[in-house]
Amino acid sequence: MKKCIWCKKDEETTTFEKKAHSIPLSLGGMNFNRNVCDECNKFFGFTLDDYSYSIEEALKETLCISRERLLNRETAKRKVGSFKSKFFDVKDRNGKLRLSLKKNIFLNYEYQRGLCHNFKKGLIKMWFEEYSRQNPNLDIYSDKFDYIRNFARYNSHDIPIYFFNRKLPIFLLKKNEAETPRLIFNRSTIYLQNENYFEFEFLGQVFGFPISSLSDVELTENLKESLELKKTLFKDCVEIKKIFDIDFLLM
After folding, report:
1. Is the pLDDT confidence value at 79 over 70?
2. What is the mean pLDDT of residues 43-50?
3. Which of 1, 171, 194, 235 is deepest in the core (most CB within 10 A)?
4. How far, in Å, are 47, 62, 205 from residue 88 at the CA level?
5. How far apart are CA 196 and CA 166, in angstroms?
């Protein structure tokens, strides 16, 4: 019997008729999680009451910048379209790309803060659905993951998410990975993963976050261990508090 990884309802109390893409289809994702109910799938995919976009759009509209940059480095098998975003403008000035918020967003601090928060929720949503899909024997319904659920699905608290800055813009991607993005959790041993903290790379970007509640000391120790693993390729990490804490241009 199907049981939703978000709300924990089963087929007797909710429906599972729609395909729930773990990575947004609009971003090129092809996999979907069979254990996401229609109600929770709708929550992430429909326009939020206080904004002009959905949580999935917050994820897609920002990461499509990185995707476009990676696609420009290779010959794609299929046309994916030119870069467009309702949030950003990308301009070429004297051979150097510059990323800026569109004027109506730049002048609205609350909208910017909401965009960053919803991007983080979209990132966690993508990770949780894909992680559970790839690990069918995992006890994904454990109360341990309520920390993740309560943030992304129920907005009861915030989660610190960290972005890792590379020393050089060098990326190792599998063939056609920019065209059809996917999460590869065992990509490298330099990405720290344990029972309370997790890191992954997606479209050249590396993120890390606690998957259960950690004290400041415990979180600091995880970040310290992580940076030691990455010291030859990465220079530092920053907690994502505004959207431009992330280098979407992969510079």
Report:
1. no
2. 89
3. 171
4. 18, 8, 18
5. 24
Instruction: Count CA atoms within 13 Å of residue 58 on its CB side.
Output: 29
DSSP letters for 51-94? SSS-HHHHHHHHHHHHHHHHHTTS--SS-------SSEEEEEET
Sheet-wide strand order for 234-239: 197-202, 205-210, 162-166, 234-239
Compute the mean pLDDT over every residue in the chain, rounded to the nearest whole number: 91
Complete DSSP assignment for 213-227: ---HHHHHHHHHHHH
Tokens 């928060």 -> residue: 117
Residue in the structure block whose two tokens are 């939020």: 48
Count other Cβ atoms within 10 Å, centred on residue 166: 18
- Among the residue ranges 98-107, 155-164, 202-211, the one predicted with the least confidence is 98-107
CA-wise closest residue to 87 among 122, 52, 121, 135: 52
Report the distance separating Cα 109 and Cα 44, nearest Å.
23
Question: How many whole angstroms separate alpha carbon 247 and alpha carbon 39?
Answer: 33
Give the DSSP H/E element, type plus range, for residue 96: strand 96-101
CA distance 155 to 124: 12
Question: For the whole model, what pTM was predicted?
Answer: 0.92
Which pLDDT score, from 0 to 100, does residue 175 have? 82
Please tell me the predicted confidence (pLDDT) of residue 83. Answer: 61
Output the CA torsion sign for 9, 11, 12, 15.
positive
Average pLDDT, integer, range 205-234: 97
| Phi-psi label, residue 117: left if phi above 0, alpha if psi -120 to 50, beta otherwise | alpha
